[in-house]
Structure formats: structure tokens, C-alpha cells
Specification:
By secondary structure, this protein is α+β, with helices and mostly antiparallel strands. The chain has helices at about 100-115, 135-145, 165-170, 205-215, 240-250; strands spanning about 5-10, 15-25, 25-30, 35-40, 45-50, 60-70, 70, 75-80, 90-95, 120, 150-155, 180-185, 185-190, 220-225, 255-260, 265-270, 275-280, 295-300, 305-310, 315-320, 325-335, 345.
Length: about 350
């Protein structure tokens, strides 16, 4: 998804002729460039198409309709293009580690749907074993309603195992391993910090990251990836190699907010003017608190997602449990001197 285009991807399980049509508020839109017909001669083929969308500041969402021989195969799904820099108000949700417990995963997804964000970020470990097709089938069954209403941007986790099935399932920008996109006045960066790709200084990923950070002029900068540089989780804790390799770039180019997973809990840390959030409570078995990291501000072991509401110069952030209870509510205000005034409203532990 960008400001003029939205890509759709689906998987055919039987040979068929399919059409992807755009449906507006006033019925079926024009044919031609706004519709796409795909013929498959083999079963289990992944297909994708690009469709124009409608920005939130215009007339509202456009719907997609997938049909075969004139019969709809599913309910209409809404799509939007990304907000332009002039649209300073929107919201998104970050979450991760959705593997292993479908009941908890479903509860978190239902909670996210009630928050109605513009899009979601996934910090990795979508499934327990990325090479097992059945686990991806279960993931998309749980995420179906969410993905039919909003885009998802993901980062590879160690449990994906660098599997081709991950790349078959999603359609992210660039090389899909590390990429960036703009939404409103925020620049988002996804990295592959999963144990399968180098991020060391001088590596292709590190060079790309520095170039990307140097190029963007967006007001806010947010980065998301799997393995955390700051964590008090009992299973993994802070990864010092990740911290030493990436934090100097984050500091040099003014990164504001970093989302991670890997440890199955929620934790907020503050270091060198950067807010780090571990959001690994999407369904995987929860972890207790281990050795506290000195930078830690708030820790809780609970299933959750993280809601971020952007209003120009202010980010309002809160953890949200599946029952809707909010915790660790705080705001970030960006000042001209690139300083921050965190205002913390205590939530339930």
C-alpha cells in the first residue's frame, strides 16, 4: 500500500478463472484498468494484483470483490491507500509472536478489530514453524477479518525460519526482508533481525538502513523488527549485538520509536531518547520477567497489542489487553530540538 496503489494477494486452491473487481459506495466501478482477471491452470497458486484505492481524506474506502463466473467467492473487502503527509491524524497497532496458541491469538485479533486502526505492524513469529503450510492456513483463518479491513506490515521472526512460505503469503515493499513506507507524517522501517540475515555495519541491510534514514524527511521515524535490543524477558533478554549495531544509527538519524517481539510480554524501555517497546503478546506462551534491564520503564506479562494514535506532533501510545483494558498509557511530544516530553498515565500492572 502506498498513496496511489494497494496490492492484493490471494491463493487459488482449484484451477479457475477469477476476477478482482473494485466496488465503490455507488456500486460496481468502471471495468478496464480497475479490474483484473486471472486464469489459473494449476491448483494452489498464489496470485496478486494492484488496485487503486481511495485515501481516508477523500470519499472513503474502495471495496474489492473476488468472483468466478459471476459469483462472489467472499464478502467484499475494503481497501485504502496510505495517508498523505498532510494527514496528521491516524492510528495503527503493533503486535507480534502470534504463534502456538490460536485461542489467545484470536482474542488479540478481536481486540485489534475493536480498535479500528488504519493498519497493523507485526513484529515477527507469525507461526511456530514457517515451513509448515498448515500453520499458515491457521494464521490466515484467525486473521481473516482483520486482513480484510486493513493492511498488515510484517517483519521476519526466527520461527519463520526464512521460509519461502512467508514470502509467498505476503507482498511487502522492496525486497520484503527490509523495507520502508510512509503513512501520514511517519516513516516506518521494517528490518530482518531474526538470526538469518546480517545487520552488521557494512552489510547490505545496514547500508540500506543508513541510506533510508538519511533520505527521509518525515516528522516521526518508527522501526520494527523481531529481536529486541532492550528486554527484561526471562527467555531472551536484551540482545547486545543488535543494540551495538543498530542503536548508533537510530541515535544519529533521530529514530523515535522501536517495536520488537521475541520475548513474549510487554515492556517499554527508554534509552538515549528512543522509546523501545517489546510487544510479543500476540498468542505465544507468555514469559516472566527475568533480569531487569536498567532502561526498563514498564513490564507486564500479558497478551496484548499496542495502539498508537498519531496527531501531528504527538503520539499517544497504550497497551491493550484482549478484554479492552488499557495499560502503560503515555504520550510522546516531538519538539523542534528533537527532545521528548513523555507523559505517563499509570495503567493496571
Amino acid at each position: 500500500m502506498d498513496r496511489t496503489l494497494n496490492k492484493s494477494r490471494w491463493r487459488l486452491v482449484v484451477p479457475t478463472v477469477m476476477a478482482l473487481l473494485l466496488v465503490g459506495y455507488y456500486g460496481l466501478m468502471d471495468a478496464g484498468p480497475k479490474s483484473s482477471t486471472v486464469t489459473s491452470k494449476a491448483a494452489a497458486v498464489t496470485r496478486e494484483t494492484a488496485t487503486p484505492g481511495v485515501s481516508r481524506v477523500d470519499k472513503g474506502p474502495t471495496a474489492t470483490r473476488v468472483s468466478t463466473e459471476g459469483q462472489s467467492l467472499a464478502s467484499d473487502n475494503s481497501i485504502r491507500t496510505a495517508a498523505p503527509p498532510t494527514q496528521a491524524t491516524f492510528s495503527f497497532v503493533a503486535f507480534g509472536d502470534t504463534r502456538s496458541n490460536p485461542i489467545a491469538h484470536q482474542q488479540v485479533v478481536s481486540s485489534i478489530l475493536s480498535l479500528a486502526p488504519d493498519f497493523v505492524l507485526h513484529t515477527g513469529d507469525f507461526v511456530a514453524d514457517g515451513s509448515v503450510p498448515a500453520q499458515w492456513t491457521e494464521f490466515f483463518s484467525i486473521e481473516h477479518d482483520l486482513l480484510s479491513q486493513m493492511p498488515l506490515y510484517g517483519a521476519l521472526g526466527n520461527h519463520e525460519g526464512n521460509s519461502q512460505l512467508y514470502f509467498d503469503a505476503f507482498n511487502f515493499p522492496g525486497n520484503e526482508r527490509w523495507y520502508s513506507f510512509d503513512y501520514g507524517n511517519v516513516h516506518f522501517i521494517a528490518l530482518q533481525i531474526d538470526g538469518y540475515a546480517s545487520y552488521a555495519p557494512g552489510s547490505p541491510q545496514a547500508q540500506w538502513l543508513e541510506n533510508d534514514l538519511a533520505y527521509t524527511s518525515q516528522h516521526w521515524k518508527a522501526v520494527f523488527f523481531h529481536i529486541p535490543p532492550y528486554s527484561s524477558g526471562s527467555e531472551h533478554g536484551s540482545d547486545m549485538q543488535v543494540r551495538e549495531a543498530l542503536e548508533p544509527l537510530f541515535m544519529r538519524y533521530g529514530v523515535d520509536l522501536v517495536f520488537n517481539g521475541h520475548d513474549h510480554d510487554y515492556e517499554r524501555s527508554l534509552a538515549n531518547g528512543i522509546t523501545y517497546i517489546v510487544t510479543g503478546g500476540g498468542g505465544a506462551p507468555l514469559y516472566a520477567k527475568g533480569q531487569p534491564d536498567p532502561a526498563s520503564v514498564y513490564f507486564t506479562s500479558t497478551y496484548h497489542s499496542v495502539q498508537v494514535s498519531v496527531t501531528g506532533m504527538t503520539l499517544a501510545v497504550a497497551g491493550v489487553r484482549p478484554d479492552g483494558v488499557r495499560f502503560d498509557e503515555f504520550t510522546l511530544h516531538k519538539l523542534p530540538a528533537r527532545q521528548y516530553l513523555p507523559v505517563v498515565v499509570k495503567g493496571l500492572p
